[in-house]
Amino acid sequence: GVMNFQHIQLEQQGYVATLTLNRPDVHNAFDDVMIAELLNALEQVQHNDTVRLFVLRSNGRNFSAGADLAWMRSMAAKNYDENIADATHLARLMQALDDLPQPTLCLVQGAAFGGAVGLAACCDIVLAESQASFCLSEVKIGLIPAVISPFVMRAIGTRQARRYMLSAERFSADVAKQLGLVHEIVDDLDAAAAEFAGILCANSPAAVTAAKQLIADLDQQPLDTRTQRHTIERIADIRVSAEGQEGLSAFLEKRSPNWKKDS
């Protein structure tokens, strides 16, 4: 059901769960409370079999300004061990979003700075408005984008990370698309999200989850006999699975598969 969160909203309509960052007064900056709530929400979604698409978005003019200033000030006053504990929560959040079994769609308007770039990089599909802008701003204030770096580097590649993580330049939605961080620039985030919901929810839920897991497992792996064996086992597994059997039968019998029946 709907939980009472302070800084976020989580709701489900049909097969789509939408998580909305809801601190527009501070440009959806995140602090320890928001990180804990995001982790809680992701855990709920992960175990909810009725969710076939997870949408991450935010209220207000900006997607997220990154870390909250008051929270950063409190971190500066804490010792090394306390900072380790704190950064661990953020790392867990990025990993949980990256590992979510369901496909994830991120909708970006306005500014996406610092950790917000990390959230986008952990999503499967990122849509941005043409006026959106991005920045890995950490070095400007004497910090580094450490916890988000593996996800950001995987999204934009080492070569571009070497520029944008060192320069802290602000870059446009167009550039973000060229870098591979953003998939599409759209006029209307709501309409585009509805379109992608239709596309993704028409596919076999088990197959989509298996495909996402396959990509995660193969990423950065050498193309050796072990990898080949892994892919052979995966296709064999899914061919004999319930949805694999249903999908093939439906295709051969020229009918709709049963996961398309209701939405």
Protein architecture, described:
By secondary structure, the protein is an alpha/beta fold. The chain is 49% helix and 15% strand. Helix 1 links the parallel strand 2 and strand 3. The model has no long low-confidence stretch (mean pLDDT 95).
Using the alpha-carbon principal axes, give the shape: globular
Report the radius of gyration as a whole number of Å. Answer: 19 Å
Q: Catalogue the unreliable spans.
A: none
Q: Which structural category do the helix and sheet elements fall into? A: alpha/beta
Strand count, sense and barrel status of the largest sheet are: 6 strands, mixed
Continuous helix count: 10
Short descriptors:
263 residues, alpha/beta, 6-stranded mixed sheet, 3-stranded mixed sheet, 10 helices, 9 strands, 49% helix
Summary?
The chain is of the alpha/beta class and about 260 residues long. The protein is built from 10 helices and 9 strands.
Write the layout of secondary structure elements.
Elements: E1 8-13, E2 16-21, H1 32-46, E3 53-58, H2 69-76, H3 80-99, E4 104-108, E5 111-113, H4 115-121, E6 125-129, E7 133-135, H5 149-167, E8 170-172, H6 173-179, E9 184-186, H7 189-201, H8 205-218, H9 225-239, H10 242-252
Helix pairs in contact: 1-3, 8-9
